[in-house]
Amino acid sequence: MKTIFFTIALVCASCVQYHPKKVETPEVTSWKNKEEVVATGPPCPEKWWEIFQDPQLNELEETAMRQSPTIQAAIAQLKNAQAVYGEVRADQFPSADLFMMAQRQRIAKSTAGQLGAVSAGQATSTSGSSNLSFTPKDLAAPPSPPCPPSPPTTGPVEPTASESVAPAAAGTAAAAVPSAAQTQIPLHFSFFQITPEISYEVDLWGKYWSASKSALMQAKGANEDLAATRLFLAANVAATYFQLCNYDANIDVTQKAIISRTHEVELNQKRAEFGVATNVELREAQVVLRGAESDLEDLKRSRNLTEDALAALVGMPASIFQVKTNGIIPKAPPIPAGLPSALLQKRPDIRRLEYLIESARLDVGVAKTAFFPAVMLYANAGFESNAIHSLFKWQNHVWQLTGTLLQNLYDAGKRSSAVKAAKAKYKQSVANFLQNVMTAYQEVEDALYSIEAAKKRHAIREKELFESDDLYKLSSLRFKNGVENYFIVITAEQTYLQSAQAANDDALQAVTATVQLIRALGGSWQDT
Predict the structure, then answer these.
(1) Would you say the C-alpha torsion 360, 361, 365, 370 has a positive or negative sign?
(2) What is the pLDDT of residues 145-161, one digit of tens each?
């Protein structure tokens, strides 16, 4: 019989579990934009930002990992998920409690009198020669010897109340049956109890097992969320730092242009004083100088805003945070080849969604267990007495065993709706997973293409920068020799300045795209 019962329970538990079709992910064998992918490349360590070989960037990343409130919040979320798992897992085991009670009570005299009258009536109907005394437990004690009644001997004598119900009848009946006044009810009584208790809900259908596994998946997902937060923060710190380097590089170019244009203003002023040049050329030189000075202030403003943003990322107040870069944007390292399918194992946000899918699947099973009866076992054992000094005597021990079975018969579709909601949540988690996979492939393709385009533009900009610098030098020399007018010099100088800033911007885009690629690959382009 037991074997049949457990077999049925096992079959029901297996039916409760939800087993949908396996989630199919798209198979990709190669990258579309792979011109920048080489056969071999530098290794990408766990601290991937070290490949840029910038000590200041390394220090900023370490500070961010220690101090960023974003990381602290993700750590707290992980601890919360782990605590929830421990809380849910505990439901699989019995619960033990200790119940202790001490009670002291006084009843009203009128109540005691009424109870005495009732007791006298009961004594008359039961036996004409019995005398009853009352205890605090049930207000009735075993019969005592014939009159006169003896006082209680189980404890100190309590104040009592007596009340006559009716005069005694003549003859032997009056002598045999005590009056209500002879039935003494204590006004004060005590009660003490100590009973350890154990309760346990038998997990026949896997309700608490599934809930525990679901909470475990949530905790693992929170751990991956922490890793994703760290990766995202590290990428933002690196990109913002490189942006700061780009501003410093452009500030340096603009400051050099201001120095050059200041000299040109002085030269045109002298030329105007000697009548060699007109005031138009002088004013044009001054206008161009003011434009460069305005550009410098705008660059400084953008740099300060970027520095403040970097301070927030690393977890420091902007008022006390300062970063001085060397104005050199590091070069993007070559990207070695890798398998696209590795994204599913490397990206922490993808792994997190996989855990959430499993958690949602288990939650469907938890919802389905509501259709089956709940079996509860309860047991307690201990002592109870009306006197503290006799509480732990063996004759005062008590125990109780209880088993209950609860089966819901009608709930207006509540359980069915809960199962439908759990299945819908599962489908939503699958859709979110697939969307993130598509986004991951898109981010890799975009990053590869951005790296390729930025490097090609930067190579062109370097040639343009060399040619514009040569044009500016020739134009300046011809102007000084009186062969060219000053407007040719201004045009050549502006072309050189724009080429220099564009070259810096292309270098920034290349290194920023490399950071985006590393983030899209899950923090590393290595297989392990």
Answers:
(1) positive
(2) 444 444 444 444 444 44
Rounded Cα–Cα distance for residues 114 and 185 (Å):
10
By three-state DSSP, how is residue 106 classified? strand
- Of 85, 508, 468, the closest CA to residue 328 belongs to 508
Residue 223 has which token pair? 């751990």
Q: Residue-wise over 86-118: b if at least 16 C-beta within 10 A, else e?
A: eebbeeeeeeeeeeeeeeeeebeeeebbbbbbb
Beta-strand runs (E) in 67-121:
95-106
- Model pTM score: 0.77
Chain mean position to CA 472: 58
User: What does each C-alpha distance from 155 to 136, 139, 143, 389 come to in angstroms?
Assistant: 11, 15, 18, 10
Distance CA 457, CA 503 (A): 8
| CA–CA gap between residue 120 and residue 132 (Å, rounded) | 8
What gap in Å lies between CA 136 and CA 63, rounded to an integer?
Answer: 71
Q: What is the spatial distance between Cα 120 and Cα 124, in angstroms, rounded to a whole number? A: 6
Task: Decide if 264 contacts 488 (C-beta within 8 A).
Answer: no
pLDDT tens, position by position, 277-296: 677 878 888 888 898 899 99
Whether the bond into 148 is cis, omega within 30 of 0: yes
In one letter, which amino acid is 109? K
DSSP code at position 387:
S
Q: Are 64 and 234 in contact (CB under 8 A)?
A: yes
The DSSP bridge partners found for residue 380 are 197, 400
